[in-house]
Amino acid sequence: MFRKPAVPTITNRSYVEGQSNGRLPSMDSKEPVREEKVVLKKKVTLLRGVSIIIGTIIGAGIFISPKGILENTGSVGMSLVVWTVCGILSLFGALCYAELGTCIKKSGGHYTYILEAFGPLPAFVRVWVELLIIRPAATAVISLAFGRHILEPLFMQCEIPDLAIKFITAVGITVVMVLNSMSVSWSARLQIFLTFCKLVAILIIIVPGVMQLIKGEIQHFKKAFEGTNTSVMGLPLAFYSGMYAYSGWFYLNFVTEEVENPEKNIPLAIGISMVTVTVGYVLTNIAYFTTISPEELLSSNAVAVTFAEQLMGRFSLAVPIFVALSCFGSMNGGIFAVSRMFYVASREGHLPEILSMIHVRKHTPLPAVIVLHPLTMIMLFTSELEDLLNFLSFARWLFIGLAVAGLIYLRYKCPDMPRPFKVPLFIPALFSFTCLFMAALSLGSDPLNTGIGFVITLTGVPAYYLFIVWDKKPKWFRKIVDRITLTLQIILEVVPAEDDQKS
Q1: Residue 313 CB burial class (10 angstroms; 0-12, 13-18, ≥19)
Q2: Interacting residues of 247 by C-beta distance below 8 A, sequence separation 6+
């Protein structure tokens, strides 16, 4: 099911290597005529790369509930230290991915790097968990934040109905996926606009905060480290919350093949984005504490709204709109990037072949984009999403740590590999240790949910041997799969890419 078909039906080489005029194979003909190459084009410029990273890192957390770090540090001063250190650690991880992205010029991110370093089994397990649980659940969670905040100005005096939130959320998810299916350029342009909105929202908080500091509103910074949590689990859990807030720095590596001049633009985009986000996050938290006490921050359900209500009066109504746009940007950037992981995994034979096909006119990986839609809707309407994310939080950090450890391994395995960008060895060593530590921390802090996540991850092992290794599947089963693939190909108007970079 997940392997390339043994019988040359839709992947007939004369068809794949021919030219295209947008015509698809019929159910009876195997040799259509083609006049234009069908490929994923290099449309991700430096600006678009920066917007992908910033636009996916900055979601709802910094505006709604940055209290996880304060809860576990116990003091204003230590919370600001943790925000800064987590930004630096995330920059280290991003620099490691800059090296990986410039020496392995394939899209796919974590999946591709694990595949190149450690082989197909761990790479398959990574994409298996991402497709089934992590990405649908993560998309549903950030989309719910979008739905809630876009409706908030309409329900200022009453509780927003849960069904209304989920309906608007479903519409938002559908719009993002349709846009990503129709045009790479327009989804990238939208991401630039939404990233601009995020930065404006942060400035709306930072500028009044600076003015408060100028006025001498520093009462919450006096004795800033008083009450610091010295428990064994407090500080590690604070770092765990902080690293989660910065997650998203790796998304540009999911679209490496579409980046213009990747040797230059990937490191530049990563450096610009991480410095911008880290400075923005720290200054935003400083701004909060010029107006809101630590106790008020911990009790607030939407810190940015509380801050705006105290300083801006009626203008505070604009804050939920900016938060909603910020969430929408994270949805758009995440779907744009992760669909390329599924596309590459399919190209390597690890997911159904239809996911590695491209729309004949739009030149988008349409099947890899829309495959998430039904899974995300199921999660949205049937699941306790936060629990699902807890199940898989350890898997996220485990596989990121494994990918960065792969950088160290590739230094010794392939010493002559061209490396246009190279980081000092202590950086991947420190970051991979941090990731593995956070995976272990999640096991210690929440053994039940993490244990369930571990079991879900392990299901990828028998799935690998069933779908990938076992190649003696019955002929009738192969024919059914091939027929379904061909039918979907005709319905979706997609064909195999002609620049297929099979390993």
Answers
A1: exposed
A2: 57, 90, 396
Q: How far apart are CA 433 and CA 455, in angstroms?
A: 23
Nearest to 350 by CA among 186, 120, 147, 159: 120
Q: What is the maximal distance between C-alpha atoms in the chain? A: 78
> Cβ distance 435 to 404 under 8 Å?
yes
The pLDDT mean for the chain works out to 83
Of 113, 107, 21, 138, nearest in space to 355 by CA: 107
111 in Cβ contact with 341 (< 8 Å): yes
Q: How many residues does the chain have?
A: 503
3-state secondary structure of 496: strand
Report pLDDT for 367.
Answer: 93
DSSP secondary structure, 168-211, as one string? HHHHHHHHHHHHHHH-HHHHHHHHHHHHHHHHHHHHHHHHHHHH
Q: Split the chain (503 residues) into runs of 10 and give each run's mean pLDDT.
A: 40 32 49 55 87 88 78 88 93 94 90 94 93 86 87 79 90 93 88 89 89 86 79 76 86 91 92 94 92 86 81 76 88 91 93 91 90 89 68 80 93 89 93 87 74 85 91 87 91 78 44
Q: How much is the pLDDT for 65?
A: 64
Q: Which residues lie across from 20 on neighbouring strands? A: 34, 35
Q: Look up residue 412 and give its amino acid.
A: Y
CB 69 within 8 A of CB 284: no
- Only one residue has tokens 């590690």, namely 236
Q: Would you tell me how many other CB atoms lie within 10 Å of the CB of residue 421? A: 18
Helix (H/G/I), strand (E/B), else coil: 428 = helix
Query: For residue 240, how many C-alpha atoms fall within 13 Å in the half-sphere facing its CB?
Result: 24
Query: Do 228 and 74 contact (CB within 8 A), yes or no?
Result: yes
Among 384, 501, 494, 387, residue whose Cα is nearest residue 24:
494
Question: Which amino acid, 288?
Answer: Y
pLDDT value at residue 220: 81
According to DSSP, the residues that pair with 35 across neighbouring strands are 20
For residue 495, what are the β-bridge partners? 358
Say how far apart CA 130 and CA 456 lie, in whole Å: 11
| Structure tokens belonging to residue 67 | 């209290």
How many Cβ atoms are within 10 Å of 400's Cβ, its own excluded? 28
Burial tier of 101 (Cβ tally within 10 Å: 0-12, 13-18, 19+): buried
**Predicted TM-score of the model (pTM):** 0.86
| Burial of 449 per CB tally in 10 Å (0-12, 13-18, 19+) | buried
C-beta separation of 500 from 107 below 8 A: no
Q: How far is Cα 129 from Cα 144, in angstroms, rounded to an integer?
A: 21
| Cα distance between residue 50 and residue 154, in whole Å | 33
pLDDT for 149 equals 85
